[in-house]
Amino acid sequence: MLDGFLAESIVGRARESGLIGITVHNLRDWTTDKHHTADDRPFGGGAGMLLKPEPVFAAIEQLQSPGCRRIYLTPDGVPLSPAVAKELSGLEHLILLSGHYEGIDQRIRDSVIDQEISIGDYVLTNGTLAAAVLVDALSRFIPGVLGEEKSLTHESFTGKLLDFPQYTRPAEFRGMSVPDVLLSGNHAEIEKWRRDHALEKTRQVRPDLLK
Ligand code: ADE
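Above: inputs. Below: predicted complex with adenine.
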């Protein structure tokens, strides 16, 4: 699931240039039975399977380093935000645990997980995608990962507003023209236009952000 994501585009280039190191591990490598069993049925009944504690404890205990942050991706975690992504981008070593079943044995959370993160109020079939989203979101805060440092400052959420509309050439396309002010070269007017439109967009789409 991760090969394309880790090899391509901005994250791929950041790995190539050594700005980020990412290793994918398979929990089955830490199982000890012949069938490499990593899951089992929940005590007390109920649907689905849970990740067993033994392989997860063994994996994390082997991979962890002093001061590393051990994170479990789960829909019942604390929502991912720019602040969370930024904080994590400053840490030396993260371990991301993704569940593939109904969940994981609570003792894993109690003993070898430091932080639980959700990427949104929906349930994915596989926490690996959530781990990829987290990696992508935090990579952007690592200096040098984005070509242009500026592209961080002007975008949705960094400034607590959604993005303003943007246009490129041609100035006239199928009868739709670019707002005059953007062609004016008047930077103060352009800034004001952008801020007004960012506010309006935020008011319409995410009024909660304005509170
Ligand atoms: N695993 C499944 N759904 C998830 C979500 N929304 N966030 C984080 N991990 C998940």
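The chain has two domains: 3-139, 153-210.
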